[in-house]
C-alpha cells in the first residue's frame, strides 16, 4: 500500500510541474501599470494563434510578446507608444481593432459594392429583355393565330364530347 501511495505522489508531483511553470508572473510598480498590461495583452492578437490574444495564448511568441509588453511598461512607455511599437513590428494584424485605412474600407465596402453591381446588372438585363419586340412578321403572326384558333376549336369539341 505504501508503494502505491508513493507512486501516486510521485506521478502527481511530476505531472503538476509543467502546469506551475506555464504561469507568467510579472511584478509591477503600481496598479496603473498592471491595468495597462492587462488591457494591452487583451487588445493585442497573437500572430501565431488563430483569433487569440496574447493574454490567452500559450504560444512561445505570445509569451515573448507579453514579456516585451511588460518591459516596455517598466520603461515608462504609454499604451499608445506600445501599440505603435507592436504595429511597426507586426503590422495592423496584431490589433483586434485595426485603424480605418483605405485597405480596411475596401474590405468592408467592397463586397457590398459588388453585390449592388450584380443586382444592377441583373436589373438592366431583365429590363432590356422586356423591351425587345417580337420579330414576327405579319404573315407569321397570322399563321400562328390560325394554329392557336384551330387548337382552341379542337379543345372545345373534345370537351363537348365528354
Topology:
Blueprint: H1 2-21, H2 31-43, H3 60-74, H4 79-90, H5 102-131, H6 138-161
Helix pairs in contact: 2-3
**Ranges with pLDDT <50 over ≥5 residues?**
none
The CATH topology assignment of the largest domain is Helicase, Ruva Protein, domain 3
Radius of gyration: 37 Å
Q: Encode the helix/strand succession as letters.
A: HHHHHH
Q: Please name the fourth-level CATH homologous superfamily of the largest domain.
A: Cytochrome C biogenesis protein
Oligomerization state: single chain
DSSP helix count? 6
The count of strands amounts to: 0
In the CATH classification, which architecture of the largest domain applies? Answer: Orthogonal Bundle
Beta-sheet strand percentage? under 5%
Largest sheet: none
Notes on the structure:
The mean pLDDT is 82. With 162 residues, the protein is mainly alpha-helical. It is elongated. It has two domains: 93 residues, Cytochrome C biogenesis protein (Helicase, Ruva Protein, domain 3, Orthogonal Bundle); 58 residues, no CATH class. 70% of the residues lie in helices and 0% in strands.
Amino acid at each position: 500500500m505504501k508503494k502505491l501511495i508513493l507512486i501516486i505522489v510521485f506521478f502527481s508531483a511530476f505531472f503538476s510541474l509543467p502546469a506551475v511553470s506555464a504561469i507568467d508572473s510579472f511584478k509591477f510598480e503600481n496598479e496603473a501599470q498592471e491595468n495597462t498590461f492587462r488591457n494591452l495583452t487583451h487588445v493585442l492578437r497573437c500572430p501565431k494563434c488563430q483569433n487569440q490574444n496574447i493574454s490567452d495564448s500559450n504560444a512561445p511568441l505570445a509569451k515573448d510578446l507579453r514579456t516585451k509588453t511588460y518591459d516596455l511598461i517598466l520603461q515608462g512607455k504609454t499604451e499608445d507608444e506600445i501599440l505603435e511599437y507592436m504595429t511597426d513590428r507586426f503590422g495592423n494584424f496584431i490589433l483586434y481593432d485595426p485603424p480605418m485605412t483605405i485597405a480596411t474600407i475596401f474590405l468592408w465596402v467592397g463586397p457590398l459594392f459588388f453585390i449592388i453591381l450584380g443586382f444592377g446588372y441583373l436589373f438592366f438585363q431583365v429590363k432590356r429583355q422586356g423591351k425587345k419586340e417580337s420579330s414576327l412578321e405579319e404573315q407569321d403572326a397570322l399563321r400562328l393565330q390560325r394554329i392557336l384558333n384551330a387548337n382552341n376549336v379542337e379543345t372545345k369539341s373534345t370537351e363537348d364530347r365528354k
